[in-house]
Design brief:
GO molecular function: DNA binding; sigma factor activity
Low-confidence stretches: 92-105
Protein name: RNA polymerase factor sigma C
GO biological process, one term: DNA-templated transcription initiation
Structural class: mainly alpha
Largest sheet: none
Strand content: under 5%
Family: Belongs to the sigma-70 factor family. ECF subfamily.
Mean pLDDT: 76
Number of strands: 0
Radius of gyration: 18 Å
Keywords: Sigma factor, Transcription, Transcription regulation
Order of helices and strands: HHHHHHHHHH
Helix content: 55-70%
Distance between the termini: 21 Å
Shape: globular
Amino acid sequence: MTELAQTDYSRSNQEQWLSDLMDEYGDRLTKLAYSYLHDWGKSHEIIQDVFLTCYQQYNTHEEIQSYKAWIYRITINRCKDVLKSSWARRVVVNNSLFQFLQSKEPSPETASLKKDADILLAEKVMGLPVKYREIIHLHYYEELSVLEISRLLKTNENTVKTRLKRGRGLLGETVERGEWNEG
């Protein structure tokens, strides 16, 4: 977000600031929301709400030290609010994260094998309890460090490390066989 942090947005550029935020974080936030909610439609609704909140908080944008941490925190809080609601108790989970895990296909055979591994891993990640799933998602899919995750979730670094280790353990053989792509 270096470009956003370095750009001087005046009051008349509020829409441009929001547009830049949406371009920079829209897809990643939607995937993050999906990792909590398991519903693409609800994830899109959450992200619209997040960007509306950002727009309303424009007057404080100069005080934000890390846009990434700020906007991820808003998204995570909104997702947790939805999970506490009655909607979460009624929803039937039928979507899969693997829709976003398509890789560049060097050959049909390699692509098929990779897709199968990605689907298996995504299903296992989505089956984890939220406290492990969020750490796994932020660390591997969003490529955040343990320190960044700790600050983002306002959790002790050792707690993050423990949840990351336990999350890996719950994923079981998939990780042990080296099928997890840390790339």
